[in-house]
Every structure is written in C-alpha cells, then in structure tokens.
C-alpha cells in the first residue's frame, strides 16, 4: 500500500470534513473522495460515516487512525534520516531547550569530539515538551531534557538528578530561609514536574524569563531545577531549596532501536561529563 491514501485518510479524520481536508492537502474534493473510497474498497471496511453536516470515523476507522499516524511519522522520520545520512558532512542533531541542559551542554560538546566514532554535534533548540516529537519525526537524533516526557518510541538514560528550588519574590516571608517545604508553597509533589510550564501558561507569559519577571514583581512563585535557577539570577528573585520535593531528573534520549554510532558516542560523552561533575548515573547506550 502506498502512503498517500493513508495521508489523505488522516487529513479527513483530523479535519472531520472532506472540504477542509482537500484544502489542507491542496487537492480537489472529488479526487479526495475517490481516493478514500478506493482505500475503503482495498481494505474491505467502511472508514467514515458521512452525512451532509459531519464526517465521523467508524470503529475500523478509529483503529486505522491510531496505527496510521505513528506509521506515517516513522516513514517521514526514516526519509529525513536517510537524506541526512547521505550528506557529505554528517552530524548528530541534539534537541535541547535553552538553559534546560543541567549546565552540561558546553562540556558535552567538547567531550564528544574525543569519543571514538564521534560525529559533529549540531544543537537544535526547542521548546517545552518538543524533544520527543523531534526524535520521532527524525528532526533530531538525540535529546537532552528533563522528565517527564512521552516515552513512546523513545529510549533514554538518566544523566543527572538534582534538587529543585523555589523561586520567590525577594521580599517573600520565606526568601531568607535556608530551606522550605512544598506545603509552605501550597504545592503538591505531583505538581512539581510541570510547575514552571503550568505557571507560564496560567499567567499568559511566553517564557521563563517573563515568568521570573512576574516573580520579582511579587505576582507569583514557581519551582525550577537547581541548574536552571543558576542560569537566571534576578535581583528581585530569591531561590530557596525545597527539602521535601521530588528531584529533577535530566535524561538523554534517542529513538528506539537507534543504531547510530554518532548518537552512541554522544551518550558516552554525556555520561562522562555528568560523572566528572559528580552527577552521573549508568546509561545504556544505543547499540
């Protein structure tokens, strides 16, 4: 089976409309309808319930959609990786969110050059929770990121574990304390992994720098890994260690079943740097 009919099917399923899907795909409506009918005939099942007002998936259609999306993503990723592998100057693309690298990135980039089978590493900056999508789509070969993350199709190893800090206004009653507890902040342990991301969304700001500006103005508080807090000193912000908070866990991740020697060299270099800082943990490298 060719991939094109599946792409057409996914577009209709996501748009709930043949007209909108045709516009998204850049084809005419009759051609799209004909392609979907041919797909249904080939599979011997009805994929959509059609009416003049709505297009809904049938049971078999829902099953196909759940399987088709990752299959198409994997195909696109394979094509991207194959094209990059043919380039005269190959490199490993490492996805990292700015300042969320445990303070290790510069040393990792230096250390990887000394590893056998190493390839040049190019950094792909990304946003919150973008790392695994980039790995699945072949837009990155490895990612350095904090948990949590969606593990589907991803292998990873723990690089470092570090304490979390409360970011408080400098005039906050607890700003001068040596330690605070989550209860002092009104935060539950299940909230800490995505607390900063939640606070950014809740306050309508665009990034961590803007969120910390609000903290300095006394408008809010938040929670950060210690290495991230160290990158954002602010005159109006006090960082205080949270003594009963689950630690932040930094991992290096790569696509499941990766056989890239360049990625393996990057993982080894990351392990060595973390261990040299006293932050290391055993990592299973891609074979």
TrEMBL record:
Gene Ontology MF: a single term: DNA binding
The entry's keywords: DNA-binding, Transcription, Transcription regulation
GO cellular component: protein-DNA complex
Phosphoprotein recorded as keyword: no
Keyword Transcription listed: yes
Residue ranges constituting the HTH lysR-type domain according to the UniProt record: 1-58
Entry similarity comment: Belongs to the LysR transcriptional regulatory family.
Name of the protein described by the UniProt record: LysR family transcriptional regulator
């Amino acid at each position: 089976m060719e991939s094109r009919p599946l792409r057409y099917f996914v577009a209709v399923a996501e748009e709930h409309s043949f007209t909108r899907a045709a516009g998204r795909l850049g084809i005419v409506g009759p051609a799209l309808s004909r392609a979907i009918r041919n797909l249904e005939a080939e599979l011997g099942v009805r994929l959509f319930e059609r009416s003049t007002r709505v297009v809904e998936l049938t049971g078999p259609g829902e099953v196909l959609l759940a399987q088709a999306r990752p299959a198409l993503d994997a195909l696109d990723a394979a094509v991207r990786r194959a094209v990059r592998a043919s380039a005269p100057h190959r490199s490993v693309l490492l996805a990292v969110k700015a300042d969320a690298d445990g303070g290790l990135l510069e040393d990792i980039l230096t250390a990887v050059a000394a590893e056998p089978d190493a390839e040049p590493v190019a950094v792909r900056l990304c946003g919150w929770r973008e790392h695994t999508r980039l790995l699945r789509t072949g837009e990155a070969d490895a990612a350095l990121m904090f948990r949590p993350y969606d593990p589907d199709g991803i292998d990873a190893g723990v690089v470092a574990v570090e304490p979390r800090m409360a970011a408080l206004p400098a005039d906050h009653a607890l700003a001068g304390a040596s330690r605070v507890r989550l209860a002092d902040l009104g935060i539950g342990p299940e909230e800490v992994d995505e607390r900063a991301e939640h606070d950014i969304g809740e306050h309508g700001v665009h990034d961590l720098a803007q969120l910390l500006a609000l903290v300095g103005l006394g408008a809010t508080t938040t929670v950060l890994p210690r290495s991230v807090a160290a990158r954002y000193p602010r005159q109006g912000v006090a960082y205080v260690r949270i003594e009963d908070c689950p630690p932040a866990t930094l991992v290096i991740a790569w696509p499941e079943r990766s056989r890239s020697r360049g990625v393996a060299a990057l993982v080894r270099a990351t392990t060595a740097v973390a261990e040299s800082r006293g932050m290391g943990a055993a990592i299973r490298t891609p074979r």
